[in-house]
Design a protein that fits this description.
Blueprint: E1 5-9, H1 16-27, E2 30-33, H2 34-42, H3 46-53, H4 55-69, E3 75-78, H5 87-95, E4 97-103, H6 106-113, H7 127-137, E5 147-150, H8 156-169
Parallel strand pairs: 1-3, 1-4, 2-3, 4-5
Helix pairs in contact: 2-4, 3-4, 4-5, 6-7
Bound molecules: shikimate-3-phosphate.
């Protein structure tokens, strides 16, 4: 049993949900995707929350969820890319979690997200410019993580192994 949660953080399109799900399966523990959890709690899609109630409402749902997750153990958690924008969430998730950043170069991110329509922040304007702008705005935000993996440089299996090996080496998992 893991004493801490494993919390994947990082920008949109870096592979948090896919890698998180696979890691949870490998470790035999529960997986929480914060976007999906918020959709379940509210009964609305992320896009609907942004459209009907605004970004502030979504960020407040993220904060409520972070508070709830801070009291739980043994989870693999994939966070939405904006979760760490609120420093209170950083503290909450770090309390009982090890933060791992997934990252990728801007062109890799653009390629991965370009045919997906569910991300409200990427709907307007030129996609490359939006991604570059957001990455610039968020510079340093994901440095709250203690370890980072560039998923653009590795195959999916290799990226999963890098994360798994790090957690083992540090004694977070057996
Ligand atoms: C967001 C990232 C999304 C989702 C929402 C806002 C962000 O999650 O939470 O659209 O601000 O970076 P993913 O990182 O899973 O795409």
């Amino acid at each position: 049993m893991m004493e801490k949660n494993i919390v994947l953080v990082g920008f949109m399109g870096t592979g948090k949900s896919t890698l998180g799900r696979a890691l949870a399966k490998r470790l035999g523990c529960r997986f929480v995707d914060t976007d999906l959890a918020i959709e379940e709690i509210t009964g609305l899609s992320v896009a609907q929350i942004f459209r009907r109630h605004g970004a502030i409402r979504f960020r407040s749902e993220e904060n409520l969820l972070a508070k709830r997750l801070a009291g739980q153990f043994g989870l693999v958690i994939a966070t939405g890319g904006g979760m760490l924008l609120n420093s209170a969430n950083v503290e909450l998730l770090k309390k009982n979690g090890v933060l791992i950043e997934l990252r990728a170069e801007p062109d890799v991110i653009v390629n991965r997200v370009k045919n997906k329509k569910h991300r409200p922040l990427l709907k307007k304007g030129d996609l490359s410019e939006t991604v570059t702008g957001l990455l610039r705005e968020r510079e340093g935000v994901y440095d709250a993580a203690e370890f980072a993996v560039d998923t653009g440089q590795l195959s999916f299996a290799a990226a999963l192994n890098v994360v798994h090996n790090y957690l083992k080496k540090k004694g977070y998992i057996k």
